[in-house]
UniProtKB/TrEMBL annotation:
It comes from Gluconobacter albidus. PROSITE patterns: NODB (PS51677). The lineage of its organism: Bacteria, Pseudomonadati, Pseudomonadota, Alphaproteobacteria, Acetobacterales. One of its GO terms (biological process) is carbohydrate metabolic process. Transmembrane segments: none annotated. InterPro entries: Glyco_hydro/deAcase_b/a-brl, NODB_dom. Coiled coil: none annotated. One of its GO terms (molecular function) is hydrolase activity, acting on carbon-nitrogen (but not peptide) bonds. Pfam families: Polysacc_deac_1. SUPFAM superfamilies: Glycoside hydrolase/deacetylase. This is Chitooligosaccharide deacetylase. Is involved in generating a small heat-stable compound (Nod), an acylated oligomer of N-acetylglucosamine, that stimulates mitosis in various plant protoplasts. Belongs to the polysaccharide deacetylase family. Gene3D superfamilies: Glycoside hydrolase/deacetylase.
């Protein structure tokens, strides 16, 4: 359907006001939502199902279960950290042991679609992606409370469905540095939004594939950027939301980079490193207590 610029509404795309101020727990100055996206080969086939026959291309995703995720989990055990792993239903069905290893270590598993399909407005697959994702995770006894949209996209149909399905929070929008409550088109309250930070998407800096050829940045460049972003976020009393991928950060140099950054964050001693559910529950508690202020 062809639309004209006359169809573009003259209003903010997000009806929610700026994120409210509220205290972080334990007297912390800032927060970090430590999160990873588990896509495996669905990151490759989501662009075109025919890519399933291109086995070297598929191997970029296959690295996740074979090497990347075990190395990331090992690092998190070493540092005694818990994280959220947004997992596609396809990855959960194809690699059940991978999901079980995440749960065994006490991490949160979130919903990340089924085939990692882009949830464009009006897409016929939005409801199916949601339902199949829930079904795949239910096989592991998981009813996720968190959702991260494939490709970080969203639309009103999806937001309304997330609320209907009892999702607590989304982590997809890029328009704030603190959590806030979404407002749906009918002006009712939606899910809590935990905005991720674009510069903490490791895919942008650390992976080059046939379908996404780009330069790979050295550790020193990325570590400097991540430290600067964290330091200013601490000064603002805000939140960092990572968008890390074990198929990227589970590679040798990238894992060293992640280790160095997490050690730096821990040494700051004023950053609450938490899962998405922990942060969303804290926001809800502050909201209910009336301790959030615009």
């Amino acid at each position: 359907m062809t639309r004209s610029y006359d169809d573009v509404p003259i209003r903010p795309s997000n009806l929610a006001g700026p994120a409210p101020e509220f205290p972080w727990p334990h007297g912390m100055r800032a927060a970090m939502m430590l999160s990873f996206d588990i896509d495996a080969e669905s990151a490759i086939t989501s662009k075109d199902p025919s890519h399933a026959d291109k086995l070297v291309s598929m191997s970029y995703g296959g690295y996740e279960a074979r090497v990347g995720l075990p190395k990331v989990l090992e690092l998190l055990r070493e540092l005694d950290l818990k994280a959220t792993f947004f997992t596609t239903g396809w990855a959960a069905d194809a690699y059940p042991a991978m999901v079980e290893s995440v749960l065994r270590d006490g991490h949160e598993v979130g919903h990340h679609g089924y085939h990692h399909l882009l949830p464009d407005p009006g897409s016929a697959h939005i409801e199916d992606e949601l339902a199949r994702g829930f079904e795949a995770l239910a096989k592991h006894g998981v009813r996720p409370v968190g959702y991260r949209a494939p490709y970080g996209e969203s639309c009103d149909e999806l937001r309304t469905a997330l609320k209907r399905e009892g999702i607590l929070y989304s982590s997809s929008w890029r328009d704030d540095v603190r959590p806030y409550r979404q407002i749906l088109p009918d002006l009712t309250a939606g899910v809590v939004e935990l905005p991720p930070s674009s510069c903490f998407d490791d895919w942008m800096h650390g992976l080059s594939t046939r379908f996404g050829a780009r330069s790979i940045f050295p550790k020193e460049h990325v570590l400097s950027m991540w430290k600067d972003e964290l330091d200013e976020t601490r000064a603002w009393g805000a939140m960092v939301g990572t968008v890390l991928h074990p198929l990227v950060s589970g590679r040798p140099m990238r894992l060293r980079l992640l280790r160095n950054f997490l050690l730096y964050t821990i040494e700051c001693r004023d950053v609450w490193i938490a899962t998405g559910e922990q942060i969303a529950r804290h926001f809800e508690a502050c909201e209910a207590a009336g301790s959030t202020a615009p």
